[in-house]
Amino acid sequence: MNIAKLAGQLRRRMRLWRLRQGRAGQWGVFRRRIATGVAAVLLGLVALAFAAMGDRAQERFADVVARWPYLPLLLTPLLFAGVTWATRRWAPDATGSGIPQVIAAAREPLLEAKGPLVSLRTAIIKLFMTVVVLGAGGSVGREGPTVQVSAAIMAAFHRLLRVPVTAGVMIAGGAAGVAAAFNTPLAGVAFAIEELASAYEQRVAVMVMAAVMISGLVSLGVAGDYIYFGAMRQTLDISSTLLITPVAGIVGGLAGGLFARLMLRWQEAERPHIARLKARPVLLAGGCGLVVAVIGLLTGSTWGTGYEVTRNLVEGQGHALWFGPAKFIATLATSISGTPGGIFAPSLAVGAGVGNLLTPVFPHDPPGAIIVLAMCAYFVGVVRAPLTAVIIISETTASRGLILPLFAAALIADGTSALVCRERLYHGLARPFFRRQAEAKA
């Protein structure tokens, strides 16, 4: 009898325990959803504020150049050197794009949850320093920094509500940052799959899509339904498609692969003269700033993200043929300087310049279509993310009539770029963070 009574009590206790566990599990899911939703709203607003600050900084720099054309020869090197010094002193993990930092953080989320890679301190410093670089005429984009800032916000809200910070949290934040920066929700999901996530899981997919959707709706509600690079309604007939697409894919892939190879070679270079330069980062940044200033002074159009020139080229207004090569050098100099800033927008600008070089080769075909194909190919050549590139280009230029040629150019560029640079750029740039994680775990 006592045994039967004891068994009944045990069953009641088990039912009560399961009920409590179920409620705790439901509360955990609710907290996770609240953290993701609130963070996605905030990062959407932060991305818009960041964009406005960056645009204002570029406008102020343009005013300075208009009044004192030669001042950038002094101003740009000084600001590059100052930003590099300040960043290395107060937030060393805020240098560069920001995407390699998120890739590394997603690889070891438990280790990095409270670390500097995705801390709010790093994010705030990165945001303001990128604005300063844009105000100095640096050839940087704000999309990569937005990815790191967004991942930091997402991780912070999960820590605040005591929700475990997983790889999915980092990936969702980064992907939502891409969506908010470009106003391209589908590109955010594609970027999460291709670049940020080493393995694509269903739970991560749901979190990514939720964060992207919310941040995209915030951006849409505040900034309106705008097209980032302007509308390109031109299309190509089948004969032109079969001729132009492989040319754009090969040329863009080679040029993009060259950029990625130079970046990775610079990072790992151990030659004595390069090592001496890298040992003096502030002086190096000043020298890179001087290169950017000289190119900008000679061309007048390589400053900043390159958005205006890119939009003009996409819409068929044309530009000087030297824009692509000049922007390539300015972006490379800015990227190796050690200042915070991304390469998304400058890469698309260089790609537009590459397409502009191809337009005289095909004088009877729509120049806007050629430029859009080359933009896609060069971007793929740099970051090796074909799906992301196609979606970004189609969403930011409204070039949906070129979707099949864009896919073809992206695939050709991906294969061509791999011949020049085997390693994917962002994963190569994340290697120093991987090594640091390995040392921390040892």
Walk me through the structure:
- The protein is an all-alpha fold and 442 residues long.
- The protein has 2 domains: 183 residues, Orthogonal Bundle (Clc chloride channel); 196 residues, Clc chloride channel.
- α14 runs antiparallel to α15 and α16 packs antiparallel against α17.
- The longest helix has 66 residues.
- The chain starts with a helix and ends with a helix.
Order of helices and strands: HHHHHHHHHHHHHHHHHHHH
Based on CA atoms alone, the radius of gyration comes out at 24 Å
Shape: globular
Question: How many β-strand stretches?
Answer: 0
Within CATH, the superfamily of the largest domain carries the name Clc chloride channel
Oligomer state of the chains in this structure: single chain
**CATH architecture annotation of the largest domain:** Orthogonal Bundle
Helix % is: over 70%
Fraction in beta strands: under 5%
List the uncertain runs: none
CA(first)-CA(last) distance: 57 Å
Q: What is the fold-level CATH name, i.e. the topology of the largest domain?
A: Clc chloride channel
Please indicate the count of domains.
2
Layout of strands and helices, then pairs:
Elements: H1 2-67, H2 72-90, H3 99-107, H4 109-112, H5 120-135, H6 143-160, H7 167-182, H8 185-196, H9 202-223, H10 238-268, H11 272-278, H12 281-299, H13 307-314, H14 323-335, H15 344-358, H16 367-383, H17 386-397, H18 403-420, H19 425-429, H20 431-441
Helix pairs in contact: 1-5, 1-6, 1-7, 1-9, 2-5, 2-12, 3-7, 3-20, 5-6, 6-7, 7-8, 7-9, 8-9, 8-17, 10-15, 10-16, 10-18, 12-14, 13-15, 14-15, 15-16, 16-17, 16-18, 17-18
